Amino acid sequence: MMPITEVMRGSKTGLCYGSTVDQKTCYECDETKAADQFTKNRRLCKACLSARNRDDYAAGVNAARSYEGVYARSIQRLYGMTMDDYDRMLRAQAYRCKVCRRPETKLRKNGEPYRLCVDHDHVTKRPRGLLCHRCNVIVWALEENHTLVPAIFAYVEQFRESLAA
Hints:
With 165 residues, the chain is α+β, with helices and mostly antiparallel strands. The protein folds into two domains: 4-44, no CATH class; 63-152, His-Me finger endonuclease fold (3-Layer(aba) Sandwich). Helix content is 40%, strand content 16%. The protein has five helices and six strands, in the order ββββαααββαα. It has helices spanning 46-59, 67-79, 83-92, 133-144, 148-164; strands at residues 4-9, 12-17, 23-25, 32-34, 117-120, 127-131. The longest helix is centred in the C-terminal third of the chain and has 17 residues, at 148-164. The protein is elongated.
């Protein structure tokens, strides 16, 4: 006969056969696992919690954890913008990059295009406009080191001259 030992189910401790106090039983998959397979004060194991969060994010069930909710919190925290401010800028730019006038082409894992990036002044943190990923990287590089422009032109021209030779 197996000894009766203590086991944790979620946040409750009870008596059970064949388990020890360093194990917990997940409420989702009903498997008994080591306590380190659970996050602090959670009833779900890490694997089930991760799967649930992933499903909620993809389905947009939880607004705070959806792509839109995460993005809204990020632009609020970083630039002091609301989604209404972002949408107003987007409409004013005809849903296109302010530099190249093209829509975003970089795609997320689900095949949808990313939102246009909020370009901002790195000193004041104030938004300047919405840019595609490619233009945002270029603006960042040039803002950080504007002497790159002549070096980039020289690099491209040197390559083109080598092809002509």
